[in-house]
Every structure is written in C-alpha cells, then in structure tokens.
Amino acid sequence: VTFITPEGEEKRLVGRVGESLLDLAHANNVDLEGACEASLACSTCHVILDQKFLDLLAEPSDEENDMLDLAFGLTETSRLGCQVELKPELDGIVARIPSATRNVQQEKLNLKGTTACSADLFKKR
C-alpha cells in the first residue's frame, strides 16, 4: 500500500489481508484521521484511489455514500479508508490523502452554542 500525503510524500507500507486502509494508516503513523473510529459517522478517513483499484472493490454502501457526500475534495474515486479492506487483488494500491478533512459531527457541536466561522469547519492536515 502506498499512501500519498497532501504534501506529496509517499509512504509505502505492507498490510494484512482483511486490514482496512484506516487501520494500516493508524498503525504506521500516517495522518489519516478516522474521527468516528470506523463507525461510518464521519468522512475524516476519506482517501482518493486510482480507478484500477476502485474497480476491484465492492460498491460503497448507502451509509458510506452518505458520508462521502460530506467529504472535502470529493472525487469519482473517493472512498472511506475505514471501508476499504485489503485483499490480494489490491496489492500495490495507492491511496491519496486529501489536504483537509471535514468533520460534520464536530461542526454540529460547534454550532449548538457558538458562532462558527466557515474556515473553522475544515481541518487542514
């Protein structure tokens, strides 16, 4: 697995079959947030995949699509890293990490009792 950071740095890692991209990133100090701990309640583990690898994955669930709709920098090849499980066919997969994340759950908390500036709604990596 190769993670490409927002700065363009490549981090090549070896994962295990069944491990998610998010778990692999966390185990190797790759800055991929995962604020909801893989419960499909945020989009902070959003990654952008190459089309050839995306085609090897099952279609995203409705819940994943709902969270992806909220992701910063959404593309046609976006997926949530917590939902991409490694399998032999994905050997060599490249996951690009967007330059910012959007945590809608945190936004809701911020908006309840305070005034939030739109710049506060996105977290730079």
Structural account:
The chain is α+β, with helices and mostly antiparallel strands and 125 residues long. Helices cover 22% and strands 18% of the residues. The chain is built from four helices and seven strands. It has helices at residues 21-27, 51-54, 62-68, 104-113, and strands at residues 2-4, 10-12, 46-49, 78-80, 94-96, 100-102, 122-124. Strands 2-1-5-3-4 form a five-stranded mixed sheet. The chain has a two-stranded antiparallel sheet with strand order 6-7. The protein is globular. It starts with a strand and ends with a strand.
Helix and strand layout, with pairings?
Layout (H helix, E strand, L loop, with lengths): L1 E3 L5 E3 L8 H7 L18 E4 L1 H4 L7 H7 L9 E3 L13 E3 L3 E3 L1 H10 L8 E3 L1
Parallel strand pairs: 1-5
Antiparallel strand pairs: 1-2, 3-4, 3-5, 6-7
